Automatic annotation (TrEMBL):
Keyword Iron-sulfur: no
Species of provenance: Candidatus Hydrogenisulfobacillus filiaventi
One GO cellular component, as annotated: cytoplasm
Record's signal peptide: none
CDD domains, per the entry: SpoU-like_rRNA-MTase
Similarity comment: Belongs to the class IV-like SAM-binding methyltransferase superfamily. RNA methyltransferase TrmH family.
GO biological process, one term: methylation
Pfam families in the record: MRM3-like_sub_bind (PF22435), SpoU_methylase (PF00588)
Protein name: RNA methyltransferase
Protein's UniProt keywords contain Metal-binding: no
Alphabetized InterPro entries for the sequence: Alpha/beta_knot_MTases (IPR029028), MRM3-like_sub_bind (IPR053888), Ribosomal_eL30-like_sf (IPR029064), rRNA_Methyltransferase (IPR051259), SpoU_MeTrfase (IPR001537), SpoU_subst-bd (IPR013123), tRNA_m1G_MTases_N (IPR029026)
Length: 272
């Protein structure tokens, strides 16, 4: 076990505090912070660049934690040993697992929201809650989506809460910032463009999810901007029991998995 680090004035700890709290810092340095054994394990196994790891005695109280630390140190990842109290002060979760990691985190810039021909994309416009954004990225990955475009007003996908909600899927899925003017691609490219609406749209079970498809998801309260809605086919989820709308993370996930099922069914029909 390495000596405990002096937390006072430590540059790495100062950087972690800024990365956790500040989107501009994450974008400037191209880094974010992972919290917890599972996320750090997945990052290491997935070949992500771990810039540094901060750990405390709590990590090595389990065999799993000991094994992770040994693997990280054998790979020459920079490690910093601090007290449980110091890590608790840093952590963004209520009960930490004794480990944080600084990981490389950069997103490409995309001029268009179009996925590859025959593929499926999803666009988040003004989705402000990091839990919703992370959930949608996780669902997109699980549903086999080819591209997740991040539009104006959407929370940083590398916000630590969003990263946790995505269960690390943000690092395994093609996610990119949409450049200003991406809306010019709306309605084109031979794609089917569907705008999710709380009500008034065509029931999602009645639209064609084949071919190249882009699903547009908007702000939790205001929905999609009019300029986006007007250039896409509105789709809605029929609801009963007096329910007016669903959380965008839930609604988007319902639509994504329905689309994935329909697309898989159509592929099977073609094979026959």
């Amino acid at each position: 076990m390495e000596p405990l680090a002096d937390a006072r004035g430590n540059k790495l700890l100062r950087r972690v505090r800024r990365l956790l709290a500040n989107r501009q810092a994450r974008e400037k340095w191209g880094q974010t912070v992972l919290e917890g054994v599972r996320l750090v394990e997945d990052a290491w196994r997935g070949g992500l660049v771990l810039e540094a790891v901060i750990y405390s005695p709590r990590l090595v109280q389990t065999a799993r934690g000991q094994g992770l630390l040994m693997a990280l140190q054998s790979g020459r990842t920079r490690t910093l040993y601090v007290t449980d109290a110091v890590l608790a002060e840093l952590a963004d979760v209520e009960t930490h697992q004794g480990i944080l990691a600084v990981v490389e985190a950069r997103l490409p810039r995309l001029a268009s929201a179009l996925p590859p021909p025959g593929g499926m994309g999803v666009v988040l416009v003004g989705v402000q809650d990091p839990g919703n954004a992370g959930t949608l990225i996780r669902s997109a990955a699980a549903a086999g989506v080819d591209l997740v475009g991040i539009g104006a007003g959407t929370v940083d996908p590398f916000n630590p809460k969003a990263v946790r909600a995505s269960a690390g899927a943000v690092f395994r899925t093609r996610v990119g910032w949409l450049e200003p003017g991406w809306e010019q691609s709306l309605g084109g490219g031979g794609a089917r463009w569907y705008a999710a609406e709380a009500r008034g749209g065509r029931p999602y079970g009645e639209v064609d999810w084949s071919g190249t498809v882009v699903l547009l998801l908007g702000n939790e309260g205001a929905g999609l901007p009019a300029a986006v809605r007007e250039r896409a086919q509105a789709v809605s989820i029929p609801m009963e029991g007096g329910v007016e709308s669903l959380n965008v993370g839930v609604a988007g996930s319902v639509l994504l998995f329905h689309a994935a099922r329909e697309r898989a069914r159509m592929r099977m029909q073609v094979k026959r």
